[in-house]
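Kindly inspect what follows.
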Amino acid sequence: MDEYGVATDNTTVHMNKLLPASVDVVWEYLTQSDKRATWLASGDMGLHVGGPADLCFNFKNLTSETTPERFLPYESNHRQHGHVTACEPPYLLSFTWNERDGRSSEVRFELKAQGDKTLLTLTHSRLPNRKEMVSVSSGWHIHLGILEDRLNQQQPRQFWATHARLEAEYEKRIPATF
């Protein structure tokens, strides 16, 4: 399985990650604020259609690295609001991402048991442009890598150094046009 996500059209990125835990454990890391905060962001997640999908990013808690200047606005207590669009515990969770000005993209997590592991399929759709596709692809890639590290009970990989490398790679991988 290729560890890199792919653009499936000009607004959607899709990636798979085989994680070293059961579906139930991965579900907890998606839906419980304290566990989600260890790899992505804390916040309320109403596990029903229409429920809140509030995320509070604190990159200072994910890495000891210095935050690059362009990401300083997101370094601590960066909040974004969305709503749950689908929820079928423990196999499917979908929510709007960063609702603002009547616009949002959508994130969908699908979980499937693979023996004692879980195949997580992430689809981020309705992205407004290629620049955003590159950014979210590299972001999801490193966040899912940190989730894998947490599940393996390992020290998480460095966020910003890995993100920069991944962003350069996705810049090459995501087509300019479809």
